[in-house]
């Protein structure tokens, strides 16, 4: 696991319910528990600060880092997507977005990464499309300094929404990724200790979080009746729930300075 992922997962999965702040020593200690060394964590924190995701903050004389308002919005939405029980009811409308990158390759790559994360796929013939309107779209594209426009409505061309979705997203590849996730799901031991639960849950959430970039949360109407993603989500949610109490205890111990070097 990369240091940046360890820090972002900590804030998004645990600190969102604990005031969005942690002492730097706790962040380093929790990252060390998942085999990320302190120098790498410090570098990741510095970069997250430079990029506007974290800010240094002193609390009661303790040096730490708080998530910025921008980070809180992004990670709150990510948390909701990660732990959603399934796709919301769909009204049959699609959200089509057209972006003008002025031919700049770097900006085009940034737009592609951003829209892919928000759940938009490349539409045949140009543009980006999603079955859902993303509340993060405007802020995300405006931050890139690009011109864009969008429309939300029913499509008149495609007769079969499922076939159309298959032309936008690689559903076979996505199904294979879900199958691999299921094959690698960890067995949760009975009564795991705080450290073990935190390590297991961190790796579990990290593995599941990559589907934010692969799966826009397609509605049931455009998916096969036996879609493997449903089983994968159920398996993830069950294990994450089983590990949550002990993993949360480990985080609380770190935040209050009660972790020994042996426990990290």
Structural summary, described in words:
By secondary structure, this protein is of the alpha+beta class. The protein folds into 3 domains: 3-73, Winged helix-like DNA-binding domain superfamily/Winged helix DNA-binding domain (Arc Repressor Mutant, subunit A, Orthogonal Bundle), CATH 1.10.10.10; 94-153, Alpha-Beta Plaits, CATH 3.30.70; 170-255, Methane Monooxygenase Hydroxylase, Chain G, domain 1. The protein is built from 10 helices and 7 strands. A 4-stranded antiparallel β-sheet has the order 5-6-4-7, with helices on one face. Strands 1-3-2 form a 3-stranded antiparallel β-sheet. A hairpin with a 2-residue loop joins strand 2 (54-59) and strand 3 (62-67). Helix 1 packs across helix 4 (69-82). The model has no long low-confidence stretch (mean pLDDT 90). Residues 169-252 form the Transcriptional repressor PaaX-like C-terminal domain. One of its GO terms (biological process) is DNA-templated transcription. Residues 3-59 form the Transcriptional repressor PaaX-like N-terminal domain. This is PaaX family transcriptional regulator.
């Amino acid at each position: 696991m990369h240091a940046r992922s360890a820090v972002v997962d900590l804030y998004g999965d645990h600190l969102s319910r604990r005031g969005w702040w942690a002492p730097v020593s706790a962040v380093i200690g929790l990252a060390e528990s998942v085999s990320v060394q302190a120098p790498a964590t410090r570098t990741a924190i510095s970069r997250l600060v430079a990029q506007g995701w974290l800010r240094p903050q002193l609390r009661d004389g303790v040096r730490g880092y708080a998530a910025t308002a921008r980070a809180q919005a992004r990670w709150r939405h990510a948390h909701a997507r990660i732990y959603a029980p399934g796709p919301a009811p769909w009204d049959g409308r699609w959200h089509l977005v057209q972006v003008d990158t002025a031919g700049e390759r770097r900006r085009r790559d940034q737009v592609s990464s951003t829209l892919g994360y928000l759940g938009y796929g490349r539409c045949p013939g140009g543009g980006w499309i999603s079955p859902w309107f993303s509340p993060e779209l405007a802020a995300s594209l405006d931050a890139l300094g690009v011109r864009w426009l969008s429309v939300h409505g029913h499509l008149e061309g495609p007769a079969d929404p499922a076939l159309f979705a298959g032309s936008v997203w690689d559903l076979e590849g996505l199904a294979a990724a879900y199958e691999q996730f299921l094959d690698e799901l960890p067995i949760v031991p009975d009564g795991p200790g705080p450290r073990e639960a935190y390590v297991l849950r961190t790796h579990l959430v990290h593995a599941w979080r990559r589907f934010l970039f692969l799966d826009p949360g397609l509605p049931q109407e455009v998916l096969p009746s036996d879609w493997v993603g449903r089983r994968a989500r159920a398996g993830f949610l069950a294990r994450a729930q089983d590990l949550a109490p002990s993993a949360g205890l480990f985080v609380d111990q770190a935040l209050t300075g009660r972790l020994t070097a042996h426990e990290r």
